[in-house]
């Protein structure tokens, strides 16, 4: 059940893979130096798109789920990384309070939570779950699909601290992306470590900030390797004042779509890529998977009856998108059993602890796969247990390919670190 | 090829396994706090003996080989641990100079070196090999059994630094145990990190110092778990003035053998163990595997014509053993394909990165297996890729058993850390 890498992946990405392999010590040293200056997010997952001619992150999740998709072989790596993370934050810690996201009715999400609990237990913490859901008034047992059980408890807030009954944690780990605002109970917790910090939640976070930081990181990295940053960088534009219902701000969107399509066309020409450029229009805030639009021509934005018209006037229009990001579309040319697939890299602290493929048979190579019909292939990274093998034919070795994915995943994680520094409301010199 | 755990392992060790599993967060936290106060050795391997009624380290190697015995699945763990180690010591490091031991004519040792080179390359260092052998006058290529090659180069010493031609390392990693003294070329290297430090070599190191530290560690740990430290602690005595050729100091040995046999007999009675106690007499310095004697009765020490008599008067006697350690013998009741086996736990920095079984079909359960005929079963720890599973029947689950081995291995590593602190010639308050 290990998916085959498609052999059609040729050209720039294979050259990039070869370059990365021969530069491994330089790359790892570069990361080491970056992590001396910047703090990695507590945990991160990064969605990648491999177009064959280009490999780029398209979404960076600071409250990752999907830990259930990691193979058992990868778990000791996760435990070791968790140990390193805890040691830095609160080495005396006995207790960890984990706050789940809202999807506790989703069996797969519960399995992911269960994995997280096990990883942190094994790393040396008593882990208990506290709910942001006001409906949880007493300890509640949730059954996991594998016959296990998780107990979720009501939060207890005192003046400066958050805990559970008879449970006072040193660190609070959020697995909730706060897309609907920051609950009172999480505010002003100055005596405990709340991770990730509140401004990593989707209430405050903006994709355009992330990709601005990613651009900075990718350019530095490209300089190190002597390569064109575009090979790992999705271009983007941002519009701050779009009101879909009022149809205002659409000129900004149209302008960016037009400019991006032109730029992509130029790059495609430079590299001899015979594909049709496209851009993706999406909300600048919020998790992936909702309200994304694929646009190949500015005209689509005006045509009523087009998907775009339906998007603007229809269901999605009910959300008044005040901020929009317009991003270069990166097609995915990977497939698992004929279904379109994209790799997801999972990290704890600054370490890659595994990954998986998100596969969606109902979607095209230019569409968002994080949508109904998505499933996951947990074994994808199993072979990456082996170390990269210098000397293998580029594109032919799964460990080599996955090393490259791990590098790009870490670049996006480093960008998230830059982003969180730049947007930290408590920072003194905030730009 | 995964060896089965023998089902005959019952009694105290299974209780201990259950206790360790339920205490995982407390154990891991305890280690975390210890590592805040003490620096782990750079890398360590620990030979364990599982007697079913007792599980104890019998040898702690600070210049480990055997990295070739780790499964490929374990390598990312080794890389991650190596990254953590480098980051602490010399984060800006580009270059690592690795100094091999003398066994460069041994294919298996070369494979172990090759693994080390790969692990540190992948962790972000340019690794080159420099030889202490004066016969190496120019870069020399050594062929590994898998068809690979390693280049070993002559060392270049300047006033304060050691390197190779066009290669100035930040850190020098010794894989040579210095049992024949500390070469001039390694002395007074105050500008670089030399790891492990010189006093970790067998020129200076004494097993009795190690086991004194281990006793301290084991007692602390036993208190944490509320158990009898003897379950993980081999008792020992030491004689500083034994001259085998002159037959002086043998009274000291006889006295310790007698006292230890009495103490072991008492413990066996307490636990209802129907085995014949034995002690092991060996040099207090030097790697395992040479000149070890198994003694079951003080009389054996006097009988001429006995193996002991032969040892004292014979081949082994040519070494004038000035210092001797007399240690409680721990039989090994593990077998791989009917051959007597003992687990070896391999660690980098403070992390367990794998392990293997040392198997010797020509040896008995009370003998040293590190002897001619020894072979290695690299897959032994493969299943330990999975996390321990609380709730499994004690003694029946390989991951649970290996978790326990990892804990005891780390206790011995922590003891080595105490030992190196206590014996550091540069320390100010050296006891």
Protein model, in words:
- The structure is a homodimer of 431-residue chains.
- With 431 residues, the first copy, chain A, is of the alpha+beta class.
- In chain A, 30% of the residues lie in helices and 22% in strands.
- Chain A contains eight helices and 18 strands.
- In chain A, a hairpin with a 4-residue loop joins strand 7 (156-157) and strand 8 (162-163).
- In chain A, helix 1 (12-22) packs across helix 8 (398-422) and helix 5 packs across helix 8.
Return residue spans of chain A where pLDDT drops below 50 for at least 5 consecutive residues. Answer: 1-9, 312-318
Q: Write down the overall geometry of chain A.
A: globular
The radius of gyration over CA of chain A amounts to 22 Å
Order of helices and strands of chain A: HHEEHEHEEEEEEEHEHEEHEEEEEH
| Chain pair sharing the greatest interface | A-B, 41 and 41 residues
- Based on helices, strands and strand pairing, what is the structural class of chain A? alpha+beta
Mean pLDDT over the residues of chain A: 86
- In total, the number of strands of chain A is 18
Taking the sheet with the most strands of chain A, its summary is: 6 strands, antiparallel
Share of helix of chain A, binned: 25-40%
Strand residues, percent of chain A: 15-25%
Give the end-to-end Cα distance of chain A, rounded to a whole number of Å. 48 Å
Multimeric state:
homodimer
Number of helices of chain A: 8
Quick structural summary:
With 431 residues, the first copy, chain A, is α+β, with helices and mostly antiparallel strands. Chain A contains eight helices and 18 strands.
């Amino acid at each position: 059940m290990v998916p085959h890498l498609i052999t059609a992946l040729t050209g720039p990405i294979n050259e990039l893979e070869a370059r990365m392999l021969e530069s491994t010590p330089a790359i790892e040293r570069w990361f080491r130096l970056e992590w001396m200056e910047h703090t990695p997010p507590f945990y991160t997952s990064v969605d990648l798109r491999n177009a064959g001619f280009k490999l780029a992150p398209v979404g960076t999740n600071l409250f990752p789920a999907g830990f259930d998709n990691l193979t058992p072989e990868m778990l000791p790596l996760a435990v070791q990384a968790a140990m390193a993370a805890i040691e830095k934050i609160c080495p005396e810690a006995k207790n960890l309070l984990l706050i789940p996201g809202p999807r506790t009715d989703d069996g797969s999400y519960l399995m992911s939570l269960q994995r997280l609990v096990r990883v942190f237990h094994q790393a040396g913490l008593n882990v208990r779950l506290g709910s942001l859901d006001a409906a949880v008034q007493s300890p509640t047992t949730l059954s996991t699909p594998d016959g296990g059980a998780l107990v979720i408890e009501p939060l207890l807030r005192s003046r400066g601290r958050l805990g559970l009954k008879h449970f006072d944690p040193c660190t609070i780990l959020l697995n909730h992306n706060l897309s609907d605002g920051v609950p009172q109970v999480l505010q002003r917790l100055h005596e405990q470590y709340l991770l990730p910090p509140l401004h990593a939640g989707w209430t405050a976070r903006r994709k355009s900030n992330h990709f601005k930081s990613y651009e900075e990181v990718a350019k530095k990295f490209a300089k190190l390797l002597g390569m064109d940053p575009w090979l790992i960088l999705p271009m983007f534009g941002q519009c701050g004042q779009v009101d879909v219902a009022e149809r205002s701000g659409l000129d900004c969107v149209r302008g960016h779509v037009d400019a991006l399509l032109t730029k992509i066309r130029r790059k495609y020409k430079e590299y001899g890529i015979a594909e049709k450029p496209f851009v993706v229009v999406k909300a600048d805030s919020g998790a992936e998977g909702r309200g994304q639009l694929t646009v190949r021509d500015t005209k689509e934005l005006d045509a009523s009856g087009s998907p775009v018209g339906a998007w603007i006037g229809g269901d999605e229009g009910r959300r008044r998108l005040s901020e929009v990001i317009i991003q270069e579309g990166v097609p995915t040319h990977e497939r698992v059993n004929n279904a379109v697939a994209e790799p997801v890299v999972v990290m704890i602290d600054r370490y890659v602890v595994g990954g998986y493929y998100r596969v969606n048979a109902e979607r095209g190579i230019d569409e968002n796969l994080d949508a109904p019909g998505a499933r996951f292939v947990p074994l994808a990274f199993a072979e990456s247990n082996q170390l990269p093998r210098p000397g293998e034919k580029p594109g032919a070795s799964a460990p080599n390919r996955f090393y490259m994915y791990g590098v790009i995943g870490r670049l996006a994680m480093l960008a998230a670190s830059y982003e969180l520094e730049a947007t930290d409301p408590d920072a003194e010199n905030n730009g």
